[in-house]
Amino acid sequence: MHPRTAFGITAATRPESARLGTGVEALGYDELWVNDNRRGDGLATLAAVGSGTSKLALGVGVVALSEQTPAVIAERVQGAGPAPERLTLGVGSGSSRSLDLVRGGVAELRRLLPEHRLAVAAVGPRMARLAGEIADAVVVNWALPDRLAELRELIAEGAAQGGRPAPRLVAYVRTAVGPGAESRLRDEMDRYARVGQHYARAFTEQRGRLIGVAIDSGDEATVDAALEPYRSVVDTVVVRGLPAADTVDAWLEIARAARGA
After folding, report:
1. What is the DSSP string of 77-120?
2. CATH of residue 97
């Protein structure tokens, strides 16, 4: 398996956005992913960060269907301007955790944005099966390699039920390098555990283990070795940076370490 290489930033990232995008592209990454929430507009961030790039694919992971209707999401996509062939639009159930909401939302988005690739976020088994049935990609967050392997099987089951090939599996892997790396990763896990029961349950099911990569030394070979178990079970690893500061140099330090550059 030769997964695509992707880097992930937060929608709240603003400093010298275009330089960050060109830096990620120059390091040889295939894709750039951005989240979307009340603190930051992922589509607007993608437009800014990707403005100076030419080949970098773009992904939003993910817009909550509990917060925005498909019509509003489609309007945002069209207003942001990324070309359909470069964009993967991710959606999720948000606070509702409703399978029907996601099924209906994806169907409506396919009608409104017929040229776009759609991804669905999945945390639990039921959503993983549904995502396998209806999505072009499945976005998984906060999962260790063994859990990713289990979800991959469930996604394949859903795809088989829908009579279609399995969509690609995209995994966000939180990655911190440099002094305080493990502390930043644990703080991020604690923050997500407070966001919703589905994350807290996922952490409990994984026995509270540290999920992601935290390398205080920032050594490229060590970072690469820590990412390899994730790469072995998915199609796209999104190296989701946890920088010590919200600066272009701090983001690119992580991107560089994860690429061995």
Report:
1. HHHH---TTTEEEEEE-TTS--HHHHHHHHHHHHHH-TTSEEEE
2. 3.20.20.30
- Report the number of distinct structural domains present in the chain: 1
Given this model, what pLDDT does residue 199 score? 87
Q: Which pTM value belongs to this model?
A: 0.94
**DSSP-derived 3-state class of residue 206:** coil
Q: HSE of 144 in the Cβ direction (CA atoms, 13 Å)? A: 12
* Through-space distance between the first and last CA atoms of the chain, rounded to whole angstroms: 21
Written as six digits, the tokens of 240 are 């989701």
- Which runs of E-coded beta strand occur in 35-150? 57-64, 87-92, 117-121, 137-140
Query: Measured between alpha carbons, how far is 73 from 41 in angstroms, rounded to an integer?
Result: 11
pLDDT digits (tens, 9 = 90+) for 103-112: 999 999 999 9
The parent domain of residue 242 ranges over 4-259
